[in-house]
């Protein structure tokens, strides 16, 4: 790999000036980068090129790809609503392989362990690289320097921004649709393999040159409701199976049984209750991690005791959130991705459980977004440092194993809380400096561990509001030292080479940090 | 001296926060050390240094050491290394003692023992956060929770845990084994800060006295002055009938506990959730304990998932006269602590009595009275206890007298 020219960004991190041949803007600080120009868009089509009957069906994925004019070097977009249960993209790239196509760039909204077989197609040259969140095996592959080009990690909002701003152009989008009609209208909230929302694919449908909808549940026109409009769709393909709904439910949506995590969740709910933003009509976003789920359950008890209702809850929906919606404790769910089948059912049945998209919720280059209207957001992290900077992409050994998801976008909430254990398997979570910077400390307000709660000194208001709540509030250094004492000191720095294998984008498209190749 | 390979600890995909160490003595060639670790890039070098330093302390100059680590904390690595070496050599004088980093205030005879959390002695991953859950005591268990072949390994783990883990002010308890093995257990724990010994399956005062004598011997030898309290566990018909004499065996007995698995087997009945079969026995123990002025402590509630059942069980224990209950999962602790908390009316009455007592003391009166009513000393004592409990449970402010 040729050496990249590196510059220091406003966070003090060294970042490359070019990524995969595209010039980059180094991170300048929160809200500092001012975009210019006009949004990108697809070529203008005309109805005369499409069947007047509205039937856009073609018999196979391979044929659809050929009709779309697939050729070497194209960028293929897809959504990840099937999470680890996706069965479509392996079929798509197998078809590309059969067609002898090379050097494709796969641009998913996230990749999962189920996509591990694609490593073989990368070795073979069918896929040149994956540009998107790399969870698990694909991340490890890239961390070892084996992928061509750099990994580019973006948030969900960042993906929308990159496409909208023309940083990335999707040649062909392939959208797995749990239910669709022959015109291409489709929805994720019903069908044998329903996944809830499918709006991570919305930008793909709006901007790609060509759009293929693949479904295993074709219904007569019109597919109601439609989350994706058929007017953006070129071809519709029926396939035997697009996904395994049992694996749409990720392991992270299981309620934790760990006493430590439950304790962290209890602290988190109590902390929220102690702040002045906790009031009738508050709003919240919680992830699908076990601790976040438990937090919602404890918070529900507080809400019942206090007689408070939440105006809206954002984020991944789960059966716990649905229960609160249906018992009237939440005004509505603004659903970014649906984590379990109860969430899917609720989206189908409840008028006030609606799919949202990265455009409404996360896009920094928009006229506002929902994320900044959220009072409390509860998020995870692999590491946090004494400056409250946090990492979600790499582990302390330097391995890139996680995508960013909506995490960076959510930091825009009024109060950002990271409930995390103070150590995982001997390795302390609080560092002097995070291995990879994904979120700047000025946006992270509270770190809640089983050993105490650290409030960012920038938030004197929160320190004041919670000081009499009987919570174990401690300086972040104190928790760090306590853990290091029994862990036998801080962990050794990651063993990495000078070779950059990936970059982390900030929500505005600037480069906030680099990820280095792990030395074996 | 036997010279074989010694292994200690646990390994395999599911293991966390523990390690497995094998040691093979050699007569020359120095130390050959192989370390595999799930946290290799972060702590691999630290593990190597620790093992080499440990071997030097144990006086080992030659041998082969293999380590398979799954994120064990340093105190665990020390314990596993020492056990592997001891098993290889058959005997080992030296000990690998981690530096003692915790000191805790001596334990009072009548402190609260509402909740005590059982921790299996050879499972270090459950230990280091055990102090966070608010239990009045933690029991590091050498007896039933440890397989017979792992007793030596558990002794090492518990000894090191006593030296380095901050249990958050919980009373440090160890349940030793029965008989001679139990007396040997004492050598491993009494020098390192244990505050209370649970003696299992006690049937006579002599058994308690034997433990007391061995503790006395160790304390004399090492100049330990802090008390080591005794909690005999009654688990048989004979033990039950001797309860008073066991409770009064020596001044260090501060409580009486019970175990129902063995007891029900002993009297030939099935153990039920309702517990009708043990009502008499538990009543007997409460009376024996109260007669001896020690705390009656109830057994555990073993269905971890049944919070309502636990709550009912604690209420019943409290109604029978018990002061505490065993916990086998951290989530049980808050329920037990809450349920042993005094009721509001109880607290209000106790506050009035305590204030009247303060007033009488201040005025040098020998008799406490509330209104026109005289208050007997046992009632005053009970009220003082209730107020203390109310403060401990967070139902009464520390400075309630100023607010009163």
> DSSP helix count of chain A?
15
Alpha-carbon Rg of chain A, integer = 23 Å
Q: Overall pLDDT of chain A, averaged?
A: 94
CATH class of the largest domain in chain B: Alpha Beta
Instruction: Please describe the biggest sheet of chain B, giving its number of strands, its sense, and whether it closes into a barrel.
Output: 8 strands, parallel, barrel
Number of E-state strands of chain A = 29
Indicate how many domains the architecture of chain A comprises: 2
Structural class, judged by helices and strands of chain B? alpha/beta
Calculate the terminal CA-CA distance of chain B, rounded to whole Å.
Answer: 71 Å
What CATH calls the topology of the largest domain in chain B is TIM Barrel
Helix content of chain B: 40-55%
- How large a portion of the residues of chain B is in β-strands, by DSSP E? 15-25%
Shape designation of chain B: elongated
Give the quaternary arrangement of the chains. Answer: heterodimer
Widest beta sheet: strand line-up of chain B: 5-6-7-8-9-10-11-12
Helix fraction of chain A, binned, reads 10-25%
> Looking across the biggest beta sheet of chain A, what order are the strands in?
18-17-16-15-19-22-26-27
Distance between the termini of chain A: 17 Å
Coarse morphology of chain A: globular
CATH superfamily of the largest domain in chain B: Phosphoenolpyruvate-binding domains
């Amino acid at each position: 790999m040729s050496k990249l020219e590196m510059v220091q960004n406003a966070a003090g991190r060294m970042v490359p000036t070019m990524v995969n041949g595209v010039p980059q803007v180094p991170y300048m600080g929160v809200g500092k980068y001012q975009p210019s120009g006009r949004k990108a868009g697809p070529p203008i089509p005309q109805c005369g090129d499409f069947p007047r009957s509205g039937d856009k069906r073609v018999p196979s994925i391979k044929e659809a790809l050929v009709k779309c004019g697939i050729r070497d070097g194209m960028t293929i977009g897809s959504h990840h609503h099937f999470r680890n249960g996706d069965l479509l993209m392996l079929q798509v790239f197998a078809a590309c392989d059969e067609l002898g196509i090379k050097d494709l760039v796969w641009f998913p909204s996230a990749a999962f362990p189920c996509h591990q077989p694609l490593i073989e197609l990368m070795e073979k040259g069918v896929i040149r690289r994956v540009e998107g969140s790399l969870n698990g095996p694909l991340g490890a592959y890239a961390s070892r320097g084996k992928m061509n080009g750099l990994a580019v990690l973006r948030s969900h909002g960042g993906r929308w921004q990159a496409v909208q701003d023309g940083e990335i152009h999707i040649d062909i989008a392939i959208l797995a649709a749990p239910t669709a009609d022959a015109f291409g209208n489709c929805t994720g909230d019903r069908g044998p393999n329903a996944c809830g929302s499918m709006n991570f694919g919305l930008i793909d449908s709006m901007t790609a040159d060509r759009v293929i909808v693949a479904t295993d549940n074709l219904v007569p026109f019109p597919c109601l409701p439609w989350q994706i409009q058929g007017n953006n769709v070129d071809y519709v393909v029926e396939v035997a199976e697009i996904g395994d709904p049992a694996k749409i439910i990720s392991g992270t949506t299981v309620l934790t049984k760990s006493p430590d995590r439950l304790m962290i969740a209890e602290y988190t709910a109590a902390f929220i209750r102690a702040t002045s933003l906790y009031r009738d009509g508050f709003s919240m976003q919680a992830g699908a991690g076990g601790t976040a789920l438990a937090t919602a359950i404890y918070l529900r008890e507080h809400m019942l005791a206090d007689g408070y209702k939440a105006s809206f809850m954002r984020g991944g929906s789960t059966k716990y959130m649905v229960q609160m919606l249906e018992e009237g404790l939440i005004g509505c769910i603004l659903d970014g991705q649906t984590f379990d089948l109860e969430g899917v059912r609720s989206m189908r049945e409840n008028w006030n459980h609606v799919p949202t998209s990265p455009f409404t919720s996360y896009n920094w280059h928009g006229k506002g977004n929902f994320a900044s209207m959220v009072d409390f957001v509860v998020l995870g992290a692999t590491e946090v440092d004494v400056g409250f900077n946090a990492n979600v992409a790499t582990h302390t050994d330097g391995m890139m194993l996680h995508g960013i998801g909506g995490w960076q976008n959510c930091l825009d909430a009024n109060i950002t809380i990271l409930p995390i254990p103070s150590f995982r398997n001997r390795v302390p979570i609080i560092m002097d400096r995070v291995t990879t910077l994904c979120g700047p400390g000025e946006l992270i307000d509270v770190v809640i561990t089983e050993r105490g709660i650290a409030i960012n000194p920038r938030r004197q208001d929160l320190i004041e509001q919670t000081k009499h709540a009987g919570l174990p509030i401690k300086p972040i250094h104190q928790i760090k030292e306590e853990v290091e004492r029994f862990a036998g000191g801080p962990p050794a720095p990651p063993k990495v080479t000078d070779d950059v294998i990936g970059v982390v984008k900030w929500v505005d498209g600037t480069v906030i940090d680099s990820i280095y190749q792990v030395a074996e | 001296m036997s010279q074989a390979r010694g292994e200690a600890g646990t390994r395999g995909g599911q293991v966390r926060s523990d390690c497995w160490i094998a040691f093979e003595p050699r007569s020359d060639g120095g130390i050959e050390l192989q370390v595999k670790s799930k946290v290799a890039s972060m702590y691999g070098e630290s593990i190597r240094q620790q093992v080499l330093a440990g071997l030097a302390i144990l006086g080992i100059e030659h041998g082969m050491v293999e380590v398979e680590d799954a994120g064990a904390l340093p105190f665990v690595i020390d314990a596993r290394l020492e056990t592997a070496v001891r098993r290889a050599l058959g005997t080992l004088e030296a000990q690998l003692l981690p530096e003692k980093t915790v000191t805790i205030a001596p334990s009072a005879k009548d402190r609260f023992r509402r909740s005590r959390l059982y921790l299996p002695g050879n499972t270090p991953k459950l230990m280091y956060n055990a102090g966070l859950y608010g239990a009045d005591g933690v029991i590091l268990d050498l007896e039933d929770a440890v397989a017979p072949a792992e007793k030596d390994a558990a002794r090492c783990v518990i000894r090191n845990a006593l030296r380095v883990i901050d249990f958050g002010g919980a009373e440090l308890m160890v349940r030793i084994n029965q008989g001679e093995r139990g007396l040997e257990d004492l050598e491993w724990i009494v020098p390192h800060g244990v505050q209370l010994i649970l003696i299992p399956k006690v049937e006579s005062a002599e058994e308690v006295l034997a433990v007391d004598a061995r503790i006395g011997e160790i304390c004399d030898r090492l100049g330990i002055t802090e008390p080591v309290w005794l909690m005999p566990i009654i688990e048989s018909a004979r033990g039950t009938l001797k309860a008073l004499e066991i409770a009064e065996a020596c001044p260090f007995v501060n409580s009486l506990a019970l175990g129902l698995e063995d007891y029900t087997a002993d009297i030939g009945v099935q153990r039920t959730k309702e517990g009708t079969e043990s009502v008499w026995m538990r009543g007997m123990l409460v009376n024996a304990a109260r007669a001896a002025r020690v705390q009656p402590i109830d057994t555990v509630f073993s269905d971890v998932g049944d919070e309502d059942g636990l709550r009912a069980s604690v209420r019943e224990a409290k109604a029978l006269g018990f002061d505490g209950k065993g916990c086998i999962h951290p989530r049980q602790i808050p329920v037990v602590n809450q349920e042993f908390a005094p009721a509001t009316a109880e607290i209000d009455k106790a506050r009035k009595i305590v204030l009247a007592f303060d007033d009488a003391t201040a005025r040098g009166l020998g008799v406490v009275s509330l209104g026109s009513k005289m208050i007997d000393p046992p009632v005053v004592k009970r009220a003082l206890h209730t107020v203390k409990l109310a403060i401990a449970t967070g139902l009464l402010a520390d400075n309630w007298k100023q607010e009163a």
